[in-house]
Amino acid sequence: MAIAIKDASEADTAAVRATLDAVTADLPTVVVMNKAEYSTQLTSQVDQLLNIIYALLGLAIVIAVLGIVNTLALSVIERTREVGLLRAIGITRPQLRPVVTPESVIITLL
Fold first, then answer.
1. Would the pTM of this model clear 0.70, i.e. be above it?
2. What's the rounded Cα separation, in Å, for the pair 11 and 82?
């Protein structure tokens, strides 16, 4: 629960703050804040939530990259006979790259 207090325009803000602090000194659950402090508190809570979301997003990206690497590794392992046959008939490594690279790009994009 929050209670807003508006002081008179001629009132001394520091004196009002000191009086409120003195009145609420016995109440540990009551916190006296001005608008700027309240705004900072809310902003810090939103920033904490955003940091948690960023951490989860980073974790999702790491998991996705590991999945892509795993899929590409399995694809290469499954094609070892095909690559071996192509190498046996005389294809060189630079000639083999354009055969494997498009498949890797398509798997990565999917």
1. no
2. 87
